[in-house]
Amino acid sequence: MKIRKKLIITLSVSVSLCFVVGCGSNVKPNQPLAASTQVSLPETSTYNIALNKIKESKLDEADALLWKEIGSVYSVRLGDLPQEKQDLINLYYYVKAQKKLLGNDYINVINYLNQLKPIDDLISINQRDSLLSKYQPLADRQWELTKSQGTLEKDSKLQSKNPADYDVNGNYKPVESMTKEEKRKELEEMMKSSLKK
User: Fold this and answer.
1) What average pLDDT score do residues 136-149 get?
2) What's the whole-model pTM score?
3) How far is CA 187 from each of CA 3, 52, 173, 182, rounded to the nearest angstrom?
4) CA dist., res. 149 & res. 158, Å (int)
5) Residues 6+ apart with CB under 8 A from 50
6) Beta pairing partners, 166
7) Lowest-confidence range among 103-107, 159-163, 174-178, 191-195?
8) Phi-psi region of 110 (alpha: psi -120 to 50; beta: other; left: phi over 0)
9) Which of 92, 142, 165, 187 could make a disulfide contact with 66, Cβ separation 3.0–4.6 Å?
């Protein structure tokens, strides 16, 4: 009786393994059971539809399609997502980099390229690295210009266009912030300069 139970258990485990791992000569040793998701997805998958739109230069359509699929999980840590979603996000990075290149937004181009992994039939590691080295100096220059423009805008917002906010010498000094003594002194200087003319 014990031998019969062991035989039944062994047989059921073998059948289960056959279903999980696969039986027959299809599976070769040291070969992964599943190929890349990019290759094995059906033609009607979001990934392949978006990939075809990219190849047809319909970047806006690909962008909208990908965002519809990944928008809800985009802020989740990439490694915590299933591979299918990671592939969609990676394709989204590619589309965004291409669109930003068309708009000359090199800072964001570099951001997306740094996150981009190679994509079959679209971009290799060498191509990505070549784009990074080409556009990094432009992104650095754009960053410097953005910083200096921000400083200029901040300075111009601090100063008023109202002439009453400037002293006789052209220095910015709003009347509201002046003490009575400063106001009196300012009036005296104005009177002296008008008498000299």
Assistant:
1) 86
2) 0.55
3) 114, 74, 13, 9
4) 14
5) 62, 65, 66, 88, 91, 95
6) 172
7) 159-163
8) alpha
9) 92
